[in-house]
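Anyone up for a design puzzle?
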């Protein structure tokens, strides 16, 4: 067998720890698969004086990132720092030094991937990023290689473990939002800045990557429409249940004649669907493609070992292809770089969806007639409508409805008119309903 491949890791936190553990624990199996050993020789972190729960005996630990990136003995740099400034500099420096890079950093790839892949291609090195989308699920491999025969029509996914963990606990145990978020942070699921998880930014990073791989378009994070889960009220979770739905934070990207839909938002999903039953930190990605039809990919979306699993899989992949001519490797974004096309991304008002609407009626007499009149004027048909019984002593009641499919611009016009009614108090809550056929 050849000498082991030397790896340097930047960052020994949740994912760095999981990666070192797996490489040590499964060393023999990994070497049998890769054709040679894969050994971490150097690692960099801010907290190198702590005791790690794995052996650091043969590991040179440093606080200086550049010591790893500029070390001529290291062939593969694993970037597990997070963020898009220092991580970008280190990644670009590693590439300039002719090193392959493996990263879990979806923010980095979504925002700077076009530049990073161009530099990597010029240097003939690989930047591998399986861990960046849906944690341990081999979704990059599946889309880039497994579905290479297909024209992909749409991709829909639960791709943020933290927000799914929160929504599941709110529904199943009636837990408080902030308590569950703190638990997700303790378990190492959340981003350093957890607003990325709960405001949909992390899911948008991952969706940006999936859309590029699915449709052969450049990475365009700035064009993703995003809404997080922080505005979901307890009553919406309860009404979803009553109507036979679950609320999930979905990333949706779809090819239409007018352009590409690229959106992240809370979504009602009928509870009989598989996606509706993906709970806790689990992720799932459902893909519609022309030859295979639908395929579903399910597994742990965050955590030390699941994410470490994806990092090590990339290390094996890179090791196996070290001697392959760069022109014959799998292209970073699934399509050859000169075959990417710049399809337009649709503004959210141009999408068509069904909707859940909740409003508070202050005067119940005649309010239903007024609301349904506005909807019919805007050619919006209603699938279900519920007027809740007023709580005794109170005049206000919730009115909840589900619409059939309509263009979002049209729905927004109707909502504006409804909010102007004297019998309606405050804002109308709007949540999109998942209507993709499956
Ligand atoms: N935690 C998870 O389940 C998942 C995380 N990711 C991504 O993996 C990456 C790492 O995430 P975690 O391991 O959770 O983060 P973490 O916060 O647990 O670890 C970060 C590590 O980087 C080191 N570091 C950061 N800046 C440094 C600097 N300037 N100099 C030296 N060391 C520095 C820290 O000391 C720490 O060891 C992020 O990009 C994250 O988005 C991806 C999938 C899942
Ligand atoms: N914070 C992320 C970690 C994995 O990508 C999540 O919760 O999914
Ligand atoms: Na993955």
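Challenge accepted. My sequence:
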């Amino acid at each position: 067998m050849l000498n082991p491949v030397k790896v340097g890791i930047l960052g020994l936190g949740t994912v760095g720890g999981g990666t070192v553990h797996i490489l040590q624990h499964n060393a023999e199996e990994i070497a049998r698969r890769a054709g040679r050993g894969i050994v971490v020789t150097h690692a960099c972190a801010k907290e190198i004086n702590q005791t790690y729960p794995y052996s650091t005996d043969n590991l040179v630990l440093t606080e200086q990132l550049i010591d790893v990136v500029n070390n001529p003995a290291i062939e593969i740099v694993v970037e597990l720092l997070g963020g898009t400034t220092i991580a970008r500099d280190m990644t670009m420096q590693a590439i300039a030094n002719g090193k392959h890079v493996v990263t879990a950093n979806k923010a980095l790839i979504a925002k700077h991937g076009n530049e990073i892949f161009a530099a990597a291609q010029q240097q003939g090195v690989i930047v591998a990023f399986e861990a960046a989308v849906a944690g341990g699920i081999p979704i990059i491999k599946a889309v880039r290689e497994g579905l290479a025969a297909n024209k992909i029509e749409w991709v829909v996914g639960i791709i943020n473990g933290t927000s799914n963990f929160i929504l599941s606990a709110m529904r199943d145990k009636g837990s408080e939002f902030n308590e569950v978020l703190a638990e997700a942070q303790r378990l190492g699921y959340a981003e350093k800045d957890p607003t990325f998880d709960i405001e949909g930014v992390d899911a948008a990073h991952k969706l940006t990557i999936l859309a590029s791989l699915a449709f052969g378009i450049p990475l365009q994070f700035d064009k993703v429409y995003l809404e997080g889960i922080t505005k979901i009220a307890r009553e919406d979770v309860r009404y979803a249940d009553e109507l036979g739905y679950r609320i999930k934070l979905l990333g949706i990207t779809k090819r239409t004649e007018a352009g590409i839909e690229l959106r992240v938002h809370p979504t009602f999903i009928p509870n009989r669907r598989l996606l509706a039953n993906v709970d806790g930190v689990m992720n799932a990605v459902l893909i519609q493609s022309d030859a295979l039809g639908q395929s579903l990919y399910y597994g742990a979306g965050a955590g030390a070992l699941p994410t470490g699993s994806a990092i090590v899989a990339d290390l094996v992949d890179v090791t196996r292809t070290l001697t392959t001519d760069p022109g014959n490797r799998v292209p970073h974004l699934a399509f050859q770089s000169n075959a990417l096309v710049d399809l337009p991304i649709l503004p959210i008002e141009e999408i068509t969806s069904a909707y859940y609407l909740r409003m508070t009626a202050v005067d119940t007499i005649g309010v239903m007639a007024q609301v349904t009149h506005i909807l019919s004027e805007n050619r919006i048909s209603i699938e279900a409508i519920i007027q809740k019984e007023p709580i005794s002593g109170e005049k206000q009641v919730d009115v909840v409805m589900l619409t059939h499919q309509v263009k979002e611009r049209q729905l927004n016009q109707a909502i504006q008119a409804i909010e102007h009614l004297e019998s309606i108090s405050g804002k109308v809550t709007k949540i999109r309903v998942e209507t993709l056929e499956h």
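A detail worth pointing out: The longest helix spans residues 106-123.
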